[in-house]
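Worked example 2:
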Amino acid sequence: MSSNHPVILFHYPHSPFSARVLYYLALRGIPYDQCIQPQILPRSDLARLGIRYRRIPLLSIGRDVYLDSRLILERLERLGAPNPPFASTATPEQRGLERLLASFTLDTGLFKSIVQVLLPHTPLLHNEAFLKDRTEMIGAPPGYNFADFLLAGGADALMAVKGALEVLETTLLADGREWLAGTREPGRADIEAVWSIQWLFSVPGALPGEYISARIFPKVFAWVERFEKAVSVAQKGFRRPETFSGEQVADILGKAAVSEAADVVDESDPLVRAERLRKGQVVQLWPTDSGSRHKTVGRLLGLTAREITIETTGGEVSVRVHAPRQGFRVAALAKANLS
């Protein structure tokens, strides 16, 4: 990437959603740098940019910052970057499979079930600061504890995960193919399905062998192992990312150029009409599920059927924040304060 459009990933180690993006960066051969964030709030590096969004990862390309790993991958798809062995999305069927697998992981409750199976086997179950932070993130009522969520319904969560692995074992992988879309190299379809499963497989003791094992799901386990090897090979020829402090990132983004225009507020959009939104208006932007109490303030730059863009106010540096329409809301500042 050019010095005017640096690519910087905001993440922390062992974040499964960050892994989803890191896999893509490695397999596509996209050079990037990083700003490592704490696992729990506060995150002063983001506050410097006027960003109150509390989920990880975020990715900046130039002065544009992208929220949510779905939108991040969509933006990276548009980069004219080096492309080592990586299956391009060549057909409508492959593009459809990618979307279905993303929904399979994120929209069916599978990821929530994986969290319930995995985290009770980690020290985080006894980390009071982590539990308090995640309790606040999910917007739980007073007196609720995130540990209660993790320990409730564990048997059902295990069966949901087992069922998802059975789907992969008996359908897409059943014919002996190496990669889910039937390609010669790993592609985005594999990334969309593997990131949460690999996270689960990587935690010692998380898998009850009588339900989930390489003996029961040999094709799934072999596929995950192939994917890990492919990423490892890609990373060997990869420039190691430089790690920047929050102060350095603020300076870099303050001097960076805009990476893409976002100057369309679709006046025919039902939300624009209902809320009487207009370009340049001060608004608040927030996710509708976890982290909904943390709202980023800025001036509305763009609103289309797929994306919301605002320019932050209140930080040391103003950046352009992009969020997908799915799972996010935007409202005029006065109205947002009432929600």
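Strands lie at 7-11, 33-36, 58-61, 64-67, 282-287, 296-303, 307-312, 320-324, 328-332. The radius of gyration is 20 Å.
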